[in-house]
Amino acid sequence: MHAPKKSSALLAAALALAVMAAACSKSPNSGTSDSFKGVGLTGAGSTFAQPMYAEWASSFHKVETGAAVNYQGVGSGGGVQQFTSKTVDFGATDVPLQTDEIAAVKSPWVEFPSCLGGVAVVYTVEGLQTGLKLDGPTIADIFTQKVKSWSDPEIANQNPGVTLPGTPITPVVRAEDSGTTAVFSGWLQKEAPSSGIQKSKSSTTWPSGLQKANGNAGVAAGVKQDNGGIGYVSYDFAVTAGLSTAQIKAPDGSYVSPSIQSITAAGGGLSFPISPDTNILDSSAAGAYPIASTTYVLIYKGQTKQDVAQTLVDFWHWALTKGQSETNAVNYAPLPSSVAQGALAQLAQVTVNGKQVTPSADE
Amino acid sequence: MIAAGAMARPLSRTRVSAVRRAKNRAFTAALWACGFLAVLPLVFIAAYVIARGVTALNLSFFTQTPQPPGLPGGGIEQSFIGTGIIVGMATLLSVPIGILTAVYLSEYGRGRLAATVRFVAEVLLSTPSIVAGAFIWSLVVVTLGHFSAIAGSLALTVLMWPIIARATEEILRLVPQEVREGGLALGLPRWKVILRLVVPTAGAGIFTAVMLAVARGLGETAPILLTALGNDFVNTNPGQPTDAVTLRIYNYAQSAFPGLHTIAWGGAITLLAAVLLLSITARVLSSRQQSRVG
After folding, report:
1. Per-residue b or e along B25-48, where b marks 16 or more CB atoms closer than 10 Å to that residue's CB
2. Which of A182, A252, A255, B233 has its C-alpha lying 20 to 30 A from A361's C-alpha?
3. What pLDDT was estimated at residue A34?
4. Quick one: fold of A39-117+293-356?
5. What is the pTM of this model?
6. Strand A244-245 and strand A109-124: pairing?
7. B64 interface with A at CB cutoff 8 Å
8. What ipTM was estimated for this complex?
């Protein structure tokens, strides 16, 4: 009868370990000032926004030492679902709430943009520099495989003086559902209605037979490996992966490279309130990158917990003001100041038990 | 022994034909090759995971929370603490449920009710784990209005207790009937026979069942994603969103930042090591148990 004692002792030890892991907690650093320290917040949604929100959460933790803004990128659809189910303090989505989603939201809410991004058309062709000029219809023809060679007249006509190799074109698209695909296919639908490309987050929007890859990383790798490869990735990823990006023809006829400045310029056309059709594609502003997108935050107007509401308003107020300068660190674009003001006006509508929440003064 | 000797005699006397010996060798070689092939994936997985993630393992990996994306350094301390809390609480919940169910099934269970309980446990055993997650999400997360470690533990409990219950029942059935009869003959009440004789005799086996269940809990991602959500900060409040190592691996594997991929591989090493350790402990204990009971 030795073994039973030993085993129960082992079991107890295992459980004790678990409890110890639970107990060796880190108390939040206590600041020296007696200002509001914030509490934990939970947000979920857009994977596109994850690096930006993680960056902001990390910086804001130093502003309000008790504020741990926990953001998890579960996807835009998941963000709307969790927001509707009221399981998170804020939701995040790359697509504005759609009509059917709005019908499911039970209480008044605010919806505002937090930062901007773009979809870059990336390629790898031996002997071809970055900055190839392409317009919407040409890109649509490339992804529907009507244009099959890099020396096709459709490309050559837009790039006088550039020696184009006769390499075959290998388009690479996203295999899984993706907000990047939704933005890119939405833009192509607008630019080339006759191409048959429909706005969709699914890869089914592309003709069958295209090379498919998972995630921005997969598309980037596919494009890099293949001489003649072309694909689309979010702008921040094109920068980190060091890929050649195409200049895209804007509505005014000029060709614009994706950059933080050109994406911010595209954001100038955003108007409030955000509606299901809101987008910043093909902005008419000078120097605006045509395939720009934004990401939205969803917060309920009528909050019930004082400290949660205060931290929520403090965090987003900080993100829309001081935080905007941190967008560059992760290659996202800041909102134009007029749009940031509009977003702040939305945030100001958040109340707790009927009283307006004003951001803490010491930020 | 006598039968085996009788069969061996003709073989030793008459020369076995060369063809038959060749066949024998060929099949032995084939069996060895199959056995080797079966072990190969584990060796490859372990070697690959270690090769990819070993550079991530340093002190800060275990003692720091994540850095903002793109910055070097940082760790996944909160994931280790979170996994400890979630799996620990799930173990505390599923051990009593599982063992008591097993005691009922093996010592008392007769007729339709016992058959139903056994059937339910078996169905739960083969339930996809994401279903358990979705169930607890709608039942606990939506009701309470937030994600939490408790919800994560409940989802794991749904998956863990049937493992403990079914394995423990089998172990309890292996306890010789004479042990029970002996206890009863000495005038012990039935509950005392079970508590003092039957369960302790099966002790190591029950511990093995618990270890297997814990290993399953450690490796689950989907039910935790839907219930504990994950957290970039250390959280020790069971009522708040909590991180887990599997969640980190899942999130970082999809990340755009190569540095995070390395951390994900590092997380995979620790998880692999923990599961291997539990499995080996369970093996050693169960072989001891077998040599004693057998």
Report:
1. eeeeeeeeeeeeeeeeeeeeeeee
2. B233
3. 53
4. D-Maltodextrin-Binding Protein; domain 2 (3.40.190)
5. 0.83
6. antiparallel
7. no
8. 0.81
